[in-house]
Specification:
Number of strands: 2
Shape: globular
Helix content: 25-40%
Number of domains: 1
Distance between the termini: 36 Å
Mean pLDDT: 92
Length: 71
């Protein structure tokens, strides 16, 4: 079984803000990693909402992830 890596990259400074490494990468993992990345960059308290760009993989188009990123 392969090990999977998902990373949240800030396109402004190209830094990896947070990541997940595991035997699976499901929507709840993607939502948790995004939440941690937003906390690390203190974007949860910003009036300007960040733009989230994904590769449209199944974990990013799920109802779980969509609910996590909705306003």
């Amino acid at each position: 079984m392969a090990t999977l890596l998902m990373s949240i990259i800030d396109v402004y400074d190209r830094a990896i803000v947070d990541y997940h490494i595991g035997l699976s990468c499901e929507s709840q993992h993607a939502a948790k990693v995004l939440q941690r990345a937003l906390w690390k960059r203190r974007l949860f308290e910003s009036h300007n909402l960040p733009v989230i760009r994904t590769d449209n993989g199944p974990q990013f188009i799920s109802h779980v992830f969509e609910g996590a990123v909705s306003i």
